[in-house]
Hints:
The protein is of the alpha/beta class. The chain contains 7 helices and 7 strands. Bound molecules: zinc ion (ZN).
Amino acid sequence: MGKVLVLSPHPDDDVIGCGGTIRQHIVLGDTVEVIYLTSGEAGGHGTDQEETIRIREKEAVLAAEILQISRVDFWHEPDGKLKASKKNIQRLHQKITSFEPDIIYVTHDREDHQDHRAAALLVSKTLRLPATAVKPTVWMYEVWTPIQKIKHIVDITPYIELKLQAIRAHQSQCKVLRFDDAISGLNRYRGEMHSWPGGPFAEIFTTFRI
Ligand SMILES: [Zn+2]
């Protein structure tokens, strides 16, 4: 049984970027844990920050229950100002050392959103620490900016409906942007264009530039 750690800059990035792959890991018997680095308080769309955090964390827990994720943690870093700071590197180092994941999933390092790039940087900096003896495989996923250099493809066709259900658990976000439709389209495109002879739905991943 493998161990999988997912870093999600905001409460919905994990299900959007790799919800199907997460579900596949769980079906195969792997343990999946997710860290929500921020609680997405900038995405309140008119709701105040405290209430937004409460709503979005509840939605993340609901989505995690749908996929049957083992454990979720909220780090409460500031939304829009996530940093690969010493404090966060230390915290991630401790998590990796204690949990010993085989694979880490994180948003890719060319994403438009600064928090998404910061999350990727946080992982690369932590794994470069000499003290981090555990060296998991890192796959970076796409949310706002499609990946160009595809290094890994996962056929998520058996899991697409559950993935969309998990995305729709993020009601506060889906009522503003139809992430379910958008990501269904993206995964369909990936399945058709990149997953042959698999598909029709796929998630794709890349590796660090360096
Ligand atoms: Zn995000």
